[in-house]
Amino acid sequence: MSPDGAMEYGAIGPRDVIFSEKPPCSRGKVFLHGQRHRLNVRGILLSLFAPWLLFVFVYAVLSFRIHYGQPQICYLLTALAFLFGVAAPGIFAANQTKKKITDTNYTPSWNIYLVGTCFLAFFVGAFSGQYNYGRFMQPYYDYLNLAVYEDLDTNEFVGQQLMDAGRINFKAGTALELNHSMGFRNTEMFCVAPIVTKHSPYKALSNDFWAVGKNCCSGSQADFHCKGFSDPTSTGALRLISQSDRPFYRLAVQQAEATYKITATHPLFFEWVHNADTSMESFYTAGVADFVMWICCYFLFQATLTAMAALAFSKLVHR
C-alpha cells in the first residue's frame, strides 16, 4: 500500500485471500469435492438398480409363460437383455477406460463396476430363471395343458384311452396295490405299484395305472414306500412328466408282470398324491415364491456390493 493509502497495482488485500485460485481437479471424477453428493447419489443409485432390474427381467422372462408358449421370443428377449444390459455398456466402459487410464488424475469409475455387476446379474438371473422354469413352472404348464379326469374307475378304462391324461382324481376306494409293487435298478431304483379301484362293478382288462417313485423300494420284494403311499385318503395322480425316466419304469412294470402274472398292456405312470388339482397348483405357488425370494435376496446382495464399492472408491479417491 502506498503512503497515501491507495492500493498498489498487483497487491493482495485481506478480502482477496478468499478468492484465491482453487487447486486444479481433473474432470470426469466420480468423487469431486464440489459435487460429491450429486455424483455419488447418481452413481450409487444406477449401480444399485440397473443390475437388479436386469436380473429381475431375465429371471422373469425365463421362468414364466412366455418361455413355455413362445420360446423363440423368450430367447430373443434374453439375448437383447445381454446386448443392451451387458455388451453395449461394456464396450462403452472399455473405451472410456482407455481414454482415462493414462491420465495421472484418473480415479475409479462406476462404469466398470456397473458392467461387472450387470454381467453377474445376467448370468445369475439366467441360471436361476431356467432352474425355476424346469423345476416348477414347466410341470405346472404341462399339467395345465393336459386333460383332467374326475371320479375315474381304473377298471373301467385302459391306458390307451387316457393318453392325454395329466391329472386324475380317482373314485373313492382307489388305492395302491402294494403287494404287486416292483423295482428296477439302473443306477437309481425305479419303483412302481399298481393303482386299483377296489369294489368296482367293472372287471379290469389290464393294469395300466401305476404309481411311481425313485429309490423308495428295495426291488427284491413288494415294499413300495414312495410319496403318498401311507395316506389312506389319497385318490389323486399327476402324470409322470420326465421322458427319460419312462423306459426304466416300463421295465419295472414288465418285471411285475412276470413276477405276479398280471397284464399291463399300455401302462401310464403317475405320482400318487392326495389331490391332483391341489398338487398341480403347488408347482405354481412354489415357482412364484421362488421368484419373489430370489428378487428380494438379489436386491440385498446388490445393495451390499454397491455399499462396499462406494466405500472402496471413496478410500481410493481421498487417500
Labels describing this entry:
319 residues; alpha+beta; 2 domains; eight-stranded mixed beta sheet; 6 helices; 49% helix; elongated
* Biggest sheet features: 8 strands, mixed
Give, in order, the helices and strands.
HHHHEEEEEEEHEH
Q: What's the number of extended β-strand segments? A: 8
Structural class by SSE content: alpha+beta
The structural domain count equals 2
Mean pLDDT: 85
Distance between the termini: 42 Å
Give the overall shape, derived from the CA principal axes.
elongated
Regions with little confidence, pLDDT below 50 for 5+ residues: 14-39
Our count of helices gives 6
The helical percent reads 40-55%
Strand content: 5-15%
Radius of gyration: 34 Å
Helix and strand arrangement:
Elements lengths: L35 H28 L1 H5 L1 H30 L9 H36 L1 E6 L12 E6 L3 E3 L5 E5 L1 E10 L11 E6 L21 E4 L6 H15 L7 E6 L2 H42 L2
Parallel strand pairs: 1-2, 6-8
Antiparallel strand pairs: 2-7, 3-5, 4-5, 5-6, 7-8
Helix pairs in contact: 1-3, 1-4, 1-6, 3-4, 4-6
Produce a short descriptive summary.
This protein has helices at residues 36-63, 65-69, 71-100, 110-145, 246-260, 276-317, and strands at residues 147-152, 165-170, 174-176, 182-186, 188-197, 209-214, 236-239, 268-273. With 319 residues, it is α+β, with helices and mostly antiparallel strands.
